[in-house]
Amino acid sequence: MATDSIDADAKRPLCVDLDGTLIATDTMAEGFMGLLKSAPWKVPAALAALRNGRPKLKRYLAENVPVDAATLPYRPEVLDAIGEARGAGRRVLLVTASDQGTADRVAEHLGLFDEAIGSDGQNNLKAQRKADYLRGRFGAGGFEYLGDSSADLPVWHAAEEATMVCPSPGTQRAAEQG
What angle do CA 141, 116, 167 make, to 5 degrees? Predict the structure, then answer.
């Protein structure tokens, strides 16, 4: 029945990646550049955090040079897709490998997300870890995902519907090859 399909679509959440998808930049790179400009004496501490893993560096940057969500370069086509999903009554989640604090700031600034989920300082919510999280939360094929990079391939495979946003040619080829 066509009605069943429409009902299923309305219930399936739209999950949106942040770096390279919702925004045309990377928040960790932005944070590191901000650290170099505003507090270069903190660079050794940032590098020490990196030695303990990317999630630790992301947390350090989020706490020491919080990204100004109002100045990020948002992609209009992604904002439009979010608006369409919300208009259809769907839940919209920001799901990112960026630190939870960064995810919260972006979500609060835009006011378009029902929930923001990010890395927690211990675990980097990226690639297979993100796919496993979303599959565990919504079931296999229980969500739609917007992403941009090869790290999103496992997430696209777990999603019912996947949309590539400005992928590199290599990511495009890898996604097409399955």
Answer: 60
Look at residues 160, 163, 166 and name the one whose alpha carbon lies nearest to residue 13: 160
Single out the residue of 1, 11, 18 nearest to residue 151, CA to CA.
18
Identify residue 141 by its one-letter amino acid code: G
pLDDT tens for residues 131-161? 999 999 999 999 999 999 999 999 999 999 9
- CA 150 to chain centroid, in Å, comes to 13
Spatial distance between the Cα atoms of 69 and 171, rounded to a whole number of angstroms:
27
The structure tokens listed for 96 are 């990112």
CA atoms within 13 A on the CB side of 129: 13
**Whole-number CA gyration radius for the chain:** 17
Among candidate residues 156, 120, 149, the one with its CA nearest the CA of residue 22: 149
Residue owning tokens 């208009």 = 87
CA-CA distance, 73 to 20, in Å (whole number)? Answer: 10
Pick among 2.40.10.10, 3.40.50.1000, 1.10.8.1310, 1.20.1740.10: CATH of 2-25+71-177: 3.40.50.1000
- pLDDT tens, residue by residue, 21-42: 999 999 999 999 999 999 999 9
> Do residues 90 and 130 touch, judged by C-beta distance below 8 A?
no
